[in-house]
Design brief:
The chain is α/β, with parallel strands linked by helices and 280 residues long. The protein has 2 domains: 181 residues, no CATH class; 82 residues, no CATH class. It has 11 helices and 8 strands. The strands form 2 sheets. The protein has a 5-stranded mixed β-sheet with strand order 1-5-6-7-8. The protein has a 3-stranded mixed β-sheet with strand order 2-4-3. The N and C termini lie far apart (39 Å).
Length: 280
């Protein structure tokens, strides 16, 4: 059980026994792939510890309860093992699932740090399981992770928004990390980490919505708050201030083409061209 994971909320479907309710009242950490982390070198070990420390310091600054993550929840893997056992597509470099994160070891320390912080941000975000019971069998599905929430036909809505917010929060962690530990990476490596995005078009579109299409002071904190507490506060504000974006973002997935379609639906050709001009 993960007792410190305050931002977790199970959803019980139909009649469920008291035992099942008790078993899932707190999130269960379960390693599904039966794989162990590679032995960590001193640099990797120190890096993970510092990232976790900075993450919880940021929570405290923003009046959010800390979430303790143990080292056992972080699995560093060779690229070949990650692709064989964890990845769902060839471009994957990290994954967060059932209280664990899996990240490829990368000789490029800037990319490795970025991927590590990205997956840790997913681990810190709101988490909900959907639990159904039939006889002695339990059926468990992901209900919500951050903004990504299960909808009709088992399609997850706001998937693309979730990745964009994960990227944005990751950069806040990285900036704080480099401020607190200025020698942890070289200057060029820090610049590369801060400017590397796994989802550059998603980030560009969400930044455009937050900073240019609306009053940023009214949306920036709700954007992150809802990511962590699972509330609909940000989406309600977005619906009020920018109905087109509220509707369009719901269907935006993790594919760049989906971002372009969403940009066009929100701001026509002008916004589409602006997003397409971003260098990935």
């Amino acid at each position: 059980m993960w007792k410190e994971k305050w931002n977790y909320s199970p959803v019980f479907v139909g009649d469920v026994s008291e035992q099942t309710k008790n078993d899932f009242s707190l999130p269960v950490i379960k390693e599904l792939y039966n794989i162990s982390s590679l032995p960590l070198n001193d640099a990797e070990s120190g890096l993970i510890s510092k990232i976790l420390k900075v993450s919880n310091e940021l929570f405290k600054i923003n009046d959010i309860m800390p979430i303790n993550i143990c080292r056992e929840q972080v699995r560093i893997l060779h690229q070949s093992e990650f692709q064989e056992k964890v990845a769902t597509k060839n471009t994957d470099q990290g994954k967060c699932l059932n209280g664990y994160i899996y990240v490829c070891r990368n000789n490029d320390i800037s990319i490795f740090v970025s991927d590590l912080v990205h997956e840790l941000s997913h681990l810190l975000s709101f988490y909900s399981l959907e639990i159904e019971e039939s006889g002695k069998k339990r059926y468990i599905n992901l209900k919500q992770s951050g903004y990504s929430i299960k909808g009709e036909g088992n399609i997850y809505n706001y998937d693309g928004l979730n990745e964009a917010v994960t990227e944005l929060w990751s950069k806040i962690i990285l900036q704080q990390l480099f401020n607190k530990y200025p020698t942890i990476l070289g200057d060029e490596e820090k610049d590369k980490a801060l400017n590397y995005y796994a989802y550059p078009y998603h980030v560009a579109l969400v930044e455009e919505i937050i900073f240019n299409l609306t009053d940023k002071n009214s949306l920036i904190w709700p954007l992150f708050k809802s990511y962590f507490d699972g509330s609909a506060d940000f989406l309600r504000l977005l619906e009020e201030k920018l109905p087109k974006a509220f509707i369009a973002l719901k269907g935006m997935n993790n594919d760049p083409q989906s971002v372009f379609e969403t940009a066009y639906n929100i701001g026509g050709k002008r916004l589409l061209q602006k997003i397409k001009s971003i260098k990935p």
